[in-house]
Design a protein that fits this description.
Rossmann fold, globular, binds zinc ion, binds adenosine monophosphate, 11 helices, alpha/beta
Length: 272
């Protein structure tokens, strides 16, 4: 077993992932979610793929093809969600409309992230899976943890981790991040060695300047340093939990999805 495979397996053991669980892997077409699906399948987990076609021109076409090819190679089912068909417009259009309406300087990736999470939870529930797996890696999580510290809002890291914790809500599907402890460079290399169908280019709309700035900084760190930052996170996590407001996860009054506020983040974005 390669060191990456060993770390992956250890993470699954740490979160007690059950072989009986039905897991929906959120496939973007990028290297991280592709490696996530490849390894979950290799280790004998019960997985299916889920891809959201964001209808962002050529980039989305390549991502869709990569997800299809991967599922063919792994011999797993792929569920497709076409944002244009389901929501009437492409992600670019929806996002721009939100930014025009709300005018709060909302970042592209933040809006897209909220919409994707909302779709994933809803569709995963319809498909009656037990878990959603995403490709978030050590670099992503280190960036997020540091961004929250730099913003002076450590409580925003309360839900960070290889598995969503303590969320009791009948409509909420637990999310896992099997690559939580694995560095991006190692994942890229692994995906190339295994010749997996991957779109290596970045999303053309990923223009969140703060995250880009943090990514540049995190890229200057060694894997050991990134691991150390997240070890700090692990140690601080019980205290970070205490900073979290104790709003219970309820149901959104507009769409019925799980939400901490009366109206969920998705519905507050799309309100007129
Ligand atoms: P991102 O929000 O682009 O950083 O992606 C984080 C994770 O969300 C990826 O590793 C995937 O697991 C998932 N994801 C992102 N985009 C899509 C998509 N279009 N369809 C399905 N899952 C996605
Ligand atoms: Zn809602």
């Amino acid at each position: 077993m390669t060191p990456l495979e060993t770390k992956f397996k250890q993470t699954l053991e740490k979160i007690n992932l059950d072989k009986k669980d039905k897991i929906l892997v959120a496939l973007s077409g990028g290297k991280d979610s592709t490696v996530t699906a490849y390894l979950l399948k290799k280790f004998g987990y019960n997985i299916e793929g889920f891809h959201i076609n964001l209808s962002m021109g050529d980039y989305s076409k390549k991502c869709l093809n990569a997800a299809k090819e991967l599922c063919k190679q792994l011999d797993i089912k792929l569920y497709l969600y076409d944002i244009k068909k389901e929501m009437g417009n492409s992600m670019c259009y929806i996002r721009t409309a939100i930014q025009t309406n709300q005018g709060k300087g909302l970042k592209n990736c933040a809006i897209c992230g909220v919409i994707k999470k909302w779709i994933m939870n809803r569709e995963a529930r319809k498909l009656k899976v037990n878990k959603i797996a995403t490709g978030h890696n050590l670099d992503d999580e280190t960036q997020t943890f540091l961004m929250n510290i730099f913003k002076g809002s450590p409580q925003l890291s309360a839900n960070l981790g290889a598995i969503t914790r303590n969320v009791k809500n009948a409509k909420f599907i637990a999310r896992i991040k099997p690559l939580f402890y694995i560095a991006e460079d190692d994942i890229r290399e692994y995906s190339k060695i295994k010749k997996l169908p991957v779109v290596y280019e970045h999303c053309p709309c990923a223009l969140d300047s703060y995250r880009i700035q943090m990514r540049k900084f995190v890229n200057t760190l060694t894997t050991k340093e990134k691991e150390n930052i997240m070890k700090n996170f692990g140690r601080l996590s019980p205290n970070i939990q205490k900073l979290k407001s104790d709003e219970k996860l309820n149901f959104c009054e507009a769409c019925g999805e799980p939400s901490r506020k009366k109206i969920c983040r998705m519905c507050s974005l799309i309100k007129k």
